[in-house]
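Appendix B, record 7
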Amino acid sequence: MTVDTSAEKHAHRTPTWLIATVAGAFGLFYAYAVWVAVGHLVTQATGVLGLNGLGWAVLGSAIVFPILVFAGAFALGHRRGAGSFALILLAGLGLTAVFWLNILSYSITQGGSLLGS
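Structure tokens (predicted):
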């Protein structure tokens, strides 16, 4: 007696529209983090001294990091339930916020090392 478990797996799968809705809602917050990082980079780069290579690398990483975290959180959670998926995306958003605060504190305390001469 064998039981076909493939039908059971598909019966408990989270609907695609729900995954897309959760990802879209959290994606707006991740996009806001990218938008703020781009704004900070532009503000620093158009200043009197501009940015040196380290400044471009540090502030550029603040733009790339939320995109990578969202992609990783999506890859980890899109096959789970909607609640677990939302918690994984929320944890990634918290990680992104901590990284952004680290970038801000570094650019405030070590601002001279990021600026060009």
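Remarks on this record: The mean pLDDT is 88. Helices lie at 6-11, 16-45, 53-77, 82-109, 111-114.
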